[in-house]
C-alpha cells in the first residue's frame, strides 16, 4: 500500500494534466479555503464553496472597475468640459500599472511555487488564439508608436499625457502577451483568490480599453469626412454637418513624416480593438481554470491535427471567393482613398456580398443537417473554453445583426425601391441569416466528440508498408509501383472517407476561407456602412457613428473567431 501511494505521489509530481482515481494527496493539492465556509466538515465541500466565493468576489471587483471606467467614459462623451480624455487616460494608466504589478508577480512568484501548476487545460489557448494575440499585439504596439510620433509632431497643441499613455500601453501589451502565450493553459492551484482578482482586474482593464477604442474610433472617419467637406465646398455643395471636435484645431502640418504617422495610426486602429477582445477571452478561460483539477478522463488520448486531406471542392470554391473579394476590395480602396467612393463601387461591393452570403448560408445549413444525421455522440464533459467560444460567437454576432436591423429600418423608411438601397437591404437580411446559420453549424460541431480518422489508420498502414519497403532490396519495377501507390494515396484517402465526414470537411474549409475574406475587408478599411451615407443621413452623424463603432469591431471579431471555430470543426470531422 505504501509503495502504491508513493507511486501516485510521484505521478502527480511528474505528469501534468493527470490525476489518480484516488483522492489526491494534500501535499500536492492545495484545497481552497474561505473564512465564510471554515466550519464545513467536508474538505471537498469547503473547497467548492470557497471556489464559488472567490469567483463571486473577483467578479464583483471587475464589475465595479468596469462601472467606474464606464462612468468616466460616459462623462467624457456627454460632458467633455468636466471629464477630459486626458483624465480618462490617467485612470486607465493607473489600472494598467496595477495589472502589470500583478502579472509580474504571477510570472515570477505564483507560477513558480511548488505544485502551482499541476494541470494544464489542453483545450485552452490553442495556437491560433495565441498567434492572434501576438499578431494583434504587434500591430497594437505599432499603433502606439505611431500615436507617440504623431503626438510628438503636434506637441505644441497636445498634452504630455498623449505621449505617456501609449508608452505605458506598449509595456502593458508586451507583458500581457507574454503571460497569455506561456500561461494561457495553466490551472493554477495556489493563491487562488489573488490570481482570480488579478485576472478579473486585467479583464476589466482590457474591456475599458476596448470601450475607449470604440468611442474614439472616429479619428480616421473624421479625417475622411473633413476631406469630403473640402471637396464638397470646392464643388459648391453644402457639406454634411458633423459635431465639432477640438482635434480639428490641431491639424497635422504638411510634412511627409506627420502624414506617415497619421496614416499608420488610421490603418492600425481596428487591430487594437480586436486585441483587447481576444485578451479578454483568453483571460476569462484562465480565470475559470483557477483551482480546476482535471481528471484523466478529460485528457485526450490523441491530439487531433490539422491535415489538408480529404478536401477538394471547399478549397477551390473558397479560394475563388477570396480572389474575387480581394479584387473587389482593391477597387473599393482605390476609389475610397483617391476621392469619394462612387455609386458603382458600392453596387459592386454589395453585389459581391449578396452572392457570397447565400452560398455560406446554404453550406452551413447542409452541414447542420449532416451533423443531425451523424451517429457521433455529443461531448458533454465540462469545457470552459468551448463554453466561452459559444458565448463569444453569439455575442459578437450581435454587432453585425444589430447594424443590419438599423439599416433595414432606415432603408425601408426612405426609398427601398432604389437599386443601391435594395442591394443594401438584401445584404442586411442575408447577413442576419448567414450569422445565425453559421453559429448553429459551428456550435453543433464544437459539441461533437473526436475520433480516430480513417486517414490516420491509412497513415499507420503506409508507415508499416514503408518499413517493409526499406528492409528489402527493391527492383526498378517495384520502386515504380511504390511511387504510384504514394501518388494515389491522397485520392484513396479522399474516396475512402465517408460522405458525411468528407462533406463536413469541404463545408468547413469553404467557410473558413469565406470568413477570412469577410474579415480582411472591414479590418483594412472597407467601411461602406458609414461611407455610403444612407443610414448616416437617416439617423444623423453622431448616432450612426456610435452604432457603427460598436457594431463594426464586434463584426470583425466575429469573423476571426468563426475561423477558429470552423477549423476546430474541420479537425474533428
TrEMBL record:
It is a multi-pass membrane protein. Keywords: Cell membrane, Hydrogen ion transport, Ion channel, Ion transport, Membrane, Transmembrane, Transmembrane helix, Transport. GO terms for molecular function: proton channel activity. The keyword Iron-sulfur does not apply. InterPro entries: Otopetrin. The chain crosses the membrane at residues 56-77, 89-108, 128-151, 163-181, 193-213, 266-287, 308-334, 346-370, 390-412, 424-443, 507-526, 538-558. GO terms for cellular component: plasma membrane. It is found in: Cell membrane. Belongs to the otopetrin family. This is OTOP3 protein. The gene is Otop3.
